[in-house]
Write a structure and sequence with these properties.
The chain is α+β, with helices and mostly antiparallel strands and 210 residues long. Helix content is 25%, strand content 27%. The protein has 5 helices and 10 strands, in the order E-E-H-E-E-E-E-H-E-E-H-E-E-H-H. Pfam families: SUFU.
């Protein structure tokens, strides 16, 4: 599947943030959100912040949608919370990685929000699908698309939470050439290229593997 550009940013969105550990904030969560956040914490560690755009078309997403920021040593995980809802046939949450201290890392919040918006209001995403970000991962980056992949860094322990039956997949920034290669040769062939090139998934400016 090749999805078109998500349309949620509109140039007017700002990011609001709740810092948990820094301010000692205690947030009361509903059962589903609590389960998702506890799942992330058990696989990684508790999030340090919950982020949400405050403009654009954010109102079209569930009211409890956030992007969680979770430090992991030399890198940071940004993970959706509330992209899935209880009535979904295949509940899905996504995550992306970046280096600790990487300038412009807040762009990932915008990308995950845009992709979540497309998932909820456009076409449902699943394993192996690609989506056009419409903007690069960072200015000057050739990665303007996302590939919905298995969570290879963390495995089945992260991938499934049952109940409530939520699947957690990795959104990998990829280039247009890599998307075209996947369309022609399949996902497995692209993953072979990734492995052969030992591609650096944390580098916004990496060269295409095809």
């Amino acid at each position: 599947m090749f999805a078109q550009q998500p349309d949620v940013l509109n140039g007017s969105a700002r990011i609001t943030c709740i810092f948990f550990r820094r301010w000692g904030v205690k947030v009361e969560l509903g059962g589903r959100r609590s389960s998702i956040r506890a799942h992330y914490a058990s696989c990684w560690q508790p999030p340090e912040a919950a982020l949400r755009l405050s403009g654009g078309r954010i109102h079209e997403l569930p009211g409890d949608f956030h992007v969680l920021r979770i430090p992991r040593g030399a890198m940071v995980t940004y993970a959706t919370e509330g992209m899935s809802v209880p009535t979904d046939a295949e509940p899905l949450e996504l995550h992306m990685f970046c280096r600790q201290g990487q300038p412009g890392a807040e762009r990932i919040v915008e990308l995950l929000t845009a992709v979540a918006h497309f998932h909820r209001t456009g076409a449902r995403l699943s394993l192996g699908h690609t989506v056009n970000f419409g903007i690069p991962w960072l200015d000057g980056s050739g990665a303007e698309f996302g590939l919905v992949s298995l969570p290879y860094l963390d495995g089945p322990t992260l991938e499934w939470l049952s109940p409530p039956g939520v699947r957690f997949l990795w959104l990998i920034p990829v280039t247009k050439a890599e998307v075209e290669f996947k369309k022609q040769h399949g996902l497995d062939a692209l993953e072979v290229r990734f492995e052969a090139a030992a591609f650096d998934y944390l580098d916004p400016f990496r060269r295409s593997v095809v």
